[in-house]
Amino acid sequence: MSAFMKKNLLQLKEKVTRSACRMVVVACFATPVFAQNVSSVVLTDENQKRIELAVWKYAIDTPFLMETIAWIHDLTKNTRESAAIAELSRLEFMRAQLEFDRDYRIQLFERSIVTADRALMMNPNDVRGLFWKAAAMGKMAESSGILNALRMLRPMEELLLKVVELDERYENAGAHRALGRMYHKLPGFPVSFGSNQKALAHLKRAHELFPEDVITRAFYAELLYDIGRKHEAREHADFVLTTPIAEEDALEFAEYVNIALGVVKKTSGSNIRLGNY
Predict the structure, then answer these.
(1) Is residue 228 within 8 Å of 213, Cβ to Cβ?
(2) For residue 187, which phi and psi values (nearest 5 degrees)?
(3) Whole-model pTM?
(4) Which domain range does residue 43 map to?
(5) Per the count of CB atoms within 10 A, which of 45, 190, 197, 198 is most buried?
């Protein structure tokens, strides 16, 4: 998430935390800004801001996330606005990330996919729907065993390549990032379709588009180490470990910090001081 967006969300957070604003939020459910029956546009600027705030704070304010899911679910019941439905899929994905029970977590990711499919039925080129469906499939693949994982990999690749074609910048070049990780971690032919060459192309492009993105830098560091470019790998790993991480991002970013730490350990350790996370 960009610094500019976080600044805006922090400003929104300050408003929401005031007691008067709590009353306004409740009242807004019946006003033209939020009410679908008054306006055909569900994904207004104000609605998008609320969604972004819920996504950013999902790991530390689960009640607000659940509140937002229920709210957008009601707003999108009868809409033909694919982007709004895709945002519901995104929120459902965040909810699933928080679930510890494996079976229920898989069910929640399935729910996110069903919602994304609903958006894609209305608009097959909805970038948000394509991306969050692929993301949910990836998480299901992690949790549901090797056979299901193999079954989902090619469809995931197709979805992500379509996102790259339509809007390669979406979600901080998230499709490039995910493809790079997939190609890096999968075995190559004839077992699967992994390719370090393809991985390098996608992660390099993601880094070019969003050089400050911690997730991209962590994935890039590990790939560069594995292909023998250890000095570059270490530079990216050090960047991850020295980047201050907000409390709201700590749970999600812990995985990427660990990846960077792994690269550091393999490149002779470090006296580096970790960023705040």
Answers:
(1) no
(2) -65, 155
(3) 0.82
(4) 1-79
(5) 198
